Amino acid sequence: MTTPQAGAPLRLVIADDQASVRQGLVLLLDAVPDIEVVGAAADGEHALDLVAEHHPDAILLDLHMPVLDGIGAIRRLTAEHPEVAIVVLTTYADDSSVLDALRAGARSYLTKDADYTEIAQALRAAVGGLTVFDPRVHATLLAATAPPGKPEPARSAPPPDGLTQREAEILGMIARGMTNPEIAAQLFLSNHTIKTHISRIFAKTGARDRAAAIGYAHRHNIG
Asked: Is the pTM of this model over 0.90?
């Protein structure tokens, strides 16, 4: 897999059948300094045409699209344009969707809960040959690939006090003594994004500082 030349932006095609989502992604990601959106498609067939025309570094695509769905598009892209990093961005995190996409050749898989900074980081990682899953997808993948006969672990309760799964994940990392840069590196997020998440964690948990947040995490068995 090739990577953009030094100083060159990451060239991206976006494919999503929902106009509002597609247009929003174009506006948000094209505004990122090192990303250039070179095309946007409403179906998989058009996405393939755009990839053939513009030779992007990566494609960000939904799974459920008309004419040619995401899985079909991924298979074609893998066969016809193996140099293009494929990142799925969809609403669906069920095991069949995740496994079908990865088997077809997707590099990374995110749900639409991800913010644009997380998406941008995942695109950069995918172009560099790395794989990124968000927490929901990671949990689905672990459950789907558990050894036969091993009981599936019980689903954990939602995080307390309105914490999102991502915030609970970061709080657990804080409780394990990880620094902001270490958390950012492991999750492929920017330091600024981690700081934003931590500010929200402090607000929701009533923690004034990191020590109080760690105490909260221990009381709620997070991390």
From this structure: no
- The encoded tokens of residue 153 equal 């672990």
* Cα dihedral 204, 210, 211, 216 in deg (nearest 10): 30
Whether the CB-CB separation of 137 and 166 falls below 8 Å is answered with no
Inter-CA distances, 210 with 47, 88, 113, 170, Å = 45, 34, 26, 12
Phi, psi of 208 (to 5 degrees): -85, -25
Give 133's DSSP letter.
Answer: B
Hey, how many other C-beta atoms are within 10 angstroms of the C-beta on 26? Answer: 16
SS3 108: strand
Q: What is the DSSP letter of 41?
A: E
Output the pLDDT for position 140: 64
Q: What is the CA radius of gyration of the chain?
A: 18
